[in-house]
């Protein structure tokens, strides 16, 4: 047995471990808790390195001289030489990049991001999560450190570095999903999945941090900071992360046995089963998840990538204020996602709504409402306070998707959630690079005109609402027949969900596998 390599047969620690003060101190900390914190911080750091350029590019590019007229309604600030709140401050931008080049740089990250999802799954199968996730983060960090130098040479090198970052970052999601199968018992998976929401904190931290660094140390410091944080995280990951409980040198035998008893039946069987790709490709519920999430990603990346440019060019915010206001909604997104998932759980467990209707309700909150709000922004003019309030609510509501279509993947195919996720992500992540390309094409060097932005918001609203209609028609929480391909067994949790899309009537049991919950209660 693998555990004999680490533990004595009488469930006690080996004698050599007792001599180690570190093991005696930290041996009481559950290994799953450490893994949760590594996952949470890993996605936080990953999204810091992914999004640092979104605000930094505002300061990197030399601003062309423009003739402003304070009588126009095309922007929302008054030009004053001594104003501390206008976008006219010089932050050392010397790069003469056109709007088209900027759109290529911002979107190039996602060109390879889609393809690497599949590569990540295959690589993890052979190399394990520790290597794949760790090396992916290391490559992303090294590229961040090289971006300032590459920017001085040629913008094509920046695109190449961002392309490499995108490919590497795409490996992280399937790698971490695979680790869940090895490490996390079924009753705890909903709670562990909340660690993936570290990316919201990462985005929320990056913008204010980047704004502060640009204002005081220059835009180059942004990439040096995020890259250095990434390398430091890789060191911690290397020391504390392990691919399975059997290879972990510190885990208690009791925890190891608990994990084995609650994961073997679900993970080992699925790993050897043949994925029903043909059934997935012809499944309308699977397509509806991918298509509707395409609309959500479109809206989300309008705020993430185009948002800082809008706040600078139209609202006239300084780089520090821009960073703070761009990041604040994402800091609240983590809490909002937990709130929406809690409400969704209550609606299901109290039998107020079926699971299918809960999924559709949360997806509507994540897409239709933000789609309407982004349209409203284009008509609020220069009421900056109201614009910011609407902006804040739109970004925050997007997180309801994690109790909606995003959680629906596990509902329709709990045995093949990974392949279905890869299929859906291949569809919806294409919006992450199409959205900024289309936005910059519409703006066409006229990002300082409110009328140009209005067309961007029109299109964003249309995409968000129209893609949701597909999910409203074909979306379902019922487990699909092909989920049991090759004789795979169903779990009690799956049987509960198949009963009219609602939990068992025998009691207020919390839905576990396929749950809407992302309870942040740490693994104990």
UniProtKB/TrEMBL annotation:
What subcellular compartments does it reside in? Membrane
**Location (main, coarse):** membrane
How would you describe this protein's topology in the membrane? Multi-pass membrane protein
Question: Does the keyword Membrane belong to this entry?
Answer: yes
Domain Major facilitator superfamily (MFS) profile, chain residue ranges per copy: 38-478
Q: Where do the TM regions start and end?
A: 21-43, 101-120, 132-151, 163-184, 196-215, 221-240, 324-344, 364-382, 389-410, 422-443, 455-474
Write down the InterPro entries for this protein, in alphabetical order.
MFS, MFS_dom, MFS_Na/Anion_cotransporter, MFS_trans_sf
This protein's GO CC annotations: membrane
Compositionally biased spans, kind Polar residues: 501-524
| Gene Ontology molecular functions | symporter activity
Region of interest (Disordered), residue spans: 486-524
Q: Which residues form a coiled coil?
A: none
Q: Which GO terms describe its biological process?
A: monoatomic anion transport
**Which keywords, in A-to-Z order, does the entry hold?**
Membrane, Symport, Transmembrane, Transmembrane helix, Transport
What Pfam families does the record tag this protein with? MFS_1 (PF07690)
What is the name listed in the Swiss-Prot or TrEMBL entry for this protein?
A: Major facilitator superfamily (MFS) profile domain-containing protein
Q: Organism, per UniProt?
A: Acanthoscelides obtectus
């Amino acid at each position: 047995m693998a555990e004999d390599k680490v533990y004595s047969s009488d469930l006690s620690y080996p004698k050599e471990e007792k001599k180690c003060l570190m093991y005696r101190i930290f041996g009481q900390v559950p290994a799953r808790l450490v893994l949760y914190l590594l996952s949470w911080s890993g996605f936080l750091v990953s999204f810091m390195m992914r999004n640092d350029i979104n605000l930094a590019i505002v300061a990197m590019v030399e601003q062309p001289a423009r003739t402003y007229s304070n009588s126009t309604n095309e922007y929302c600030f008054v030009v004053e030489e001594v104003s501390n709140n206008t976008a006219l401050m010089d932050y050392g931008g010397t790069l003469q990049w056109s709007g088209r080049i900027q759109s290529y740089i911002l979107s190039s990250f996602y060109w390879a991001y889609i393809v690497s999802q599949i590569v990540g799954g295959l690589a993890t199968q052979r190399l394990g999560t520790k290597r794949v996730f760790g090396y992916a983060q290391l490559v992303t960090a090294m590229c961040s450190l090289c971006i300032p130098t590459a920017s001085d040479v040629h913008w094509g090198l920046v695109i190449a570095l961002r392309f490499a970052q995108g490919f590497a970052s795409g490996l992280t999601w399937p790698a971490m999903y695979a680790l869940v199968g090895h490490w996390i018992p079924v009753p705890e998976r909903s709670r562990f999945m909340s660690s993936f929401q570290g990316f919201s904190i990462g985005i929320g931290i990056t913008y204010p941090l980047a704004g502060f660094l640009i204002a005081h140390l220059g835009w180059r410091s942004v990439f040096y900071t995020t890259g250095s944080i990434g390398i430091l995280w890789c060191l911690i990951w290397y020391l504390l992360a392990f691919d399975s409980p059997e290879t972990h040198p510190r885990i208690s035998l009791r925890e190891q046995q608990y994990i084995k008893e609650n994961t073997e039946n679900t993970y080992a069987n699925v790993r050897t089963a043949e994925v029903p790709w043909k059934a997935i490709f012809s499944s309308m519920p699977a397509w509806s998840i991918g298509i509707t999430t395409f609309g959500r990603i479109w809206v989300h990346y309008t705020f993430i990538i185009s948002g800082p440019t809008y706040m600078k060019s139209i609202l006239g915010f300084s780089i520090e204020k821009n960073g703070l206001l761009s990041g604040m909604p994402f800091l609240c997104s983590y809490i909002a996602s937990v709130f929406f998932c809690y409400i969704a759980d209550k609606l299901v467990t109290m039998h107020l709504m079926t699971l299918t209707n809960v999924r559709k309700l949360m997806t509507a909150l994540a897409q239709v409402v933000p789609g309407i709000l982004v349209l409203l922004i284009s008509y609020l003019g220069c009421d900056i306070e109201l614009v910011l309030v609407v902006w804040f609510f739109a970004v925050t509501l997007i997180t309801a998707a994690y109790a909606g279509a995003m959680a629906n993947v596990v509902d329709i195919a709990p045995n093949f959630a990974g392949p279905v996720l890869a299929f859906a992500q291949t569809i919806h992540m294409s919006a992450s690079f199409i959205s900024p390309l289309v936005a910059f094409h519409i703006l066409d060097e006229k990002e300082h005109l409110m009328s140009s932005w209005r067309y961007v918001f029109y299109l964003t609203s249309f995409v968000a609402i129209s893609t949701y209609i597909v999910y409203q028609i074909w979306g379902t929480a019922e487990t699909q027949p092909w989920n049991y391909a090759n004789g795979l067994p169903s779990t009690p949790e799956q049987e509960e969900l198949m009963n009219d899309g609602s939990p068992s009537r025998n009691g207020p049991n919390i839905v576990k596998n396929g749950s809407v919950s992302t309870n942040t209660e740490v693994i104990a």
